[in-house]
Amino acid sequence: MSNKLRIIGGEWRSRQISFDDAPGLRPTPGRVRETLFNWLQADVANSRCLDLYAGSGALGVEAASRGAKSVVQVESNAKTCQKLSGNCRLLGASQIQVVQQDVNQYLMAGGDQFDLVFLDPPFGLNMIQETSRLLNQGVWLASFAKIYIEAERSLVLSDMPSTWDLLKQKTAGDVAYYLFQKTDRN
Fold it and tell me: Are 44 and 118 in contact (CB under 8 A)?
């Protein structure tokens, strides 16, 4: 079964991207994406974005559509990565790089710094704390980077990095979403 979602804003506004069914793949709902990008409206242009557990690619594509300089989408499922790459070709999105790799392995390898990070793992697998720890301990986060986290509403976020300040949070249906910012305190 093929699924589609509409890009909400920017250069590719109203264009559709498609995604396949895959275990744990749950695209960020449109109204949640709209709220998130309203929160980030001053931060997206010319930013470097990291989309972890990319899935449908909705968050990374939305950021690229709104002027992000570069987007790295990390996803472990090979078929999902093929669909992500196909969507990039369809849109002419040369600023998006798709990486097929386990997210935690990717973060352990070290790499570039990012201004915005989207962390939206499959629900029910308790991946947020470990991924946040790896993200925080590496060189991944630029000064004052923003980190978006999407989780099941029932999950209590605990043991988040002490250098991350919670800026905003909201719920929509079964989804809870949060916007953190990295600080310079140790």
Answer: no
